[in-house]
Amino acid sequence: MVLKMDEGGVVRHVDRADCPPDAVVARETLRLIGSTNEFAVRLCDAPSCGMFFVPRRRNQEWCTTRCGARVRSSRRYEASSRLE
Predict the structure, then answer these.
(1) Which pLDDT does position 29 carry in this prediction?
(2) How far apart are the first and last CA of the chain?
(3) pLDDT the model gives residue 54
(4) Does residue 44 share a domain with residue 4?
(5) Which Gene3D superfamilies does the record associate with it (predicted)?
(6) Residue 65's pLDDT is what?
(7) Domain of residue 6, residue span
(8) What is the CB neighbour count within 10 angstroms for residue 14?
(9) Do 30 and 42 lie in a common domain?
(10) 15, 26, 40, 49: which could form a disulfide with 44 (CB 3.0–4.6 Å)?
(11) Chain mean position to CA 35
């Protein structure tokens, strides 16, 4: 689907079988980022990740369980280093 303006200046969604995949990805990205939902897109809090993700839960901080495990492991290591 693409946007097309007719002679009257009305913009409509038009299905196009030959719509390039890049255009679909760009359109959906803009739609997601422009959402008014405050939980629509977040930046992963894990160090060295930096991926954007759509949270499945209100308190989700990381894009994947792997990033969450890496952060928790790092926190445990830092806590044990301070105890020594």
Answers:
(1) 79
(2) 61
(3) 85
(4) no
(5) Jann2411-like domain
(6) 92
(7) 1-34
(8) 11
(9) no
(10) 49
(11) 11
Task: Say if residue 30 is in the same domain as residue 70.
Answer: no
Q: Are residues 44 and 30 in the same domain?
A: no
Alpha helices, DSSP H only, in the chain?
A: 21-33, 65-83
Into how many domains does the chain fold?
Answer: 2
For 27-73, the pLDDT digits (tens) are 777 877 777 666 678 889 898 898 989 888 888 999 999 999 999 99
Residue for token digits 């008014």? 36
Least confident of 13-17, 47-51, 63-67, 77-81: 13-17
Are 27 and 64 in the same domain? no
Beta-strand pair 2-5/11-14: antiparallel
Whether 19 and 52 share a structural domain:
no
Largest CA distance in the chain: 75
Q: What pLDDT is attached to residue 1?
A: 65
Q: Are 42 and 57 in contact (CB under 8 A)?
A: no
Could you tell me if 9 and 46 lie in one domain? no
